[in-house]
UniProtKB/TrEMBL annotation:
NCBIfam families: adk (TIGR01351), PRK00279.1-2 (NF001380), PRK00279.1-3 (NF001381), PRK14527.1 (NF011100). ATP binds at residues 12-17, 124, 133-134, 196. It comes from Candidatus Methanoplasma termitum. GO terms for cellular component: cytoplasm. This is Adenylate kinase. Belongs to the adenylate kinase family. The gene is adk. It comes from the Archaea. Keywords: ATP-binding, Cytoplasm, Kinase, Metal-binding, Nucleotide biosynthesis, Nucleotide-binding, Transferase, Zinc. Residues 32-61 are annotated as: NMP. GO terms for biological process: AMP salvage.
């Protein structure tokens, strides 16, 4: 089984959803830079204060901040830990920094068209406490408006408004798309069609991971 996995794909392609399922089924640790940054913003830490404006507009947080954050997280884990990297790396500079610290054995790219991405993100609801993710139609919570896992009130992420989503897609194409070629050259890229039910996609994800 692959143990160091990068999840690639545009905003809303299902990285968080599939990553969570891999953690539940196989005990991976998921390192999501988006979740870490949102927590830092909520707590008002120095990192959160610096990151807030970038995130609200859909821009990337500067590489040096992200690389330092992830270096520390990775160092705190045992070497044998199975890790899912969700939302990191997002630039070639971040990928180079990650490669110096960890040997990546799979880069899993979820391919989803823009219209579907916009529909998924504008109707996504997230739990601010445990980071669980729902969709109003495709993956609704059992009780409308509340997290199934921890019962907190669900939120619309501030960067999930349509205008910001469009900017995130532009930023993705400019800065993150080159990573597909980057991992292809390294010979560890697998691309999966990311449209279909969550379980159908998870079946394909498992095949790539096992
Ligand atoms: P981040 O939190 O990483 O956001 P993202 O990459 O834009 O990805 P998302 O969380 O929006 O989507 P996802 O692919 O995880 O999809 P999900 O599973 O939730 O980053 C946010 C911001 O932080 C960035 O804009 C940037 O500012 C900053 N940042 C983070 N990392 C950074 C880095 N490394 N460098 C610099 N800046 C960084 O699914 C989406 C929705 O679709 C959900 O509602 C879900 O229920 C639904 N869904 C999932 N699968 C399906 C399916 N198969 N069918 C139908 N619906 C589905």
């Amino acid at each position: 089984m692959k143990t160091k996995i990068v999840l690639l794909g545009p905003p809303g392609s299902g990285k968080g959803t599939q990553g969570e399922k891999l953690c539940e089924q196989y005990g991976f640790v998921k390192l999501s830079t988006g979740d870490m940054l949102r927590e830092a913003v909520r707590k008002g830490t120095a990192l959160g204060v610096k990151a807030d404006g970038y995130m609200k507009s859909g821009a990337l947080v500067p590489n040096d901040l992200i690389i330092a954050l992830m270096k520390e997280k990775i160092t705190s884990l045992d070497e044998g830990t199975g890790i899912i990297f969700d939302g990191f790396p997002r630039t070639v500079e971040q990928a180079n920094a990650l490669g110096e610290q960890v040997h990546i054995d799979l880069a899993l790219n979820l391919d989803v068209n823009d219209q579907e991405l916009i529909d998924r993100l504008t109707k996504r609801r997230t739990c601010p406490k445990c980071n669980a993710v729902y969709h109003l139609e495709y993956n609704p919570p059992k009780r409308a408006g509340f997290c199934d896992k921890c019962r907190s009130v669900l939120e619309l992420r501030s960067d999930d408004r349509e205008e910001t989503v469009r900017n995130r897609l532009k930023v993705y194409r400019e800065s993150t798309l080159p990573l597909i070629k980057y991992y292809e050259k390294k010979g560890n890229l697998v691309t999966i069609e990311g449209v279909g039910s969550i379980d159908e996609i998870f079946a394909k994800v498992k095949k790539a991971v096992l």
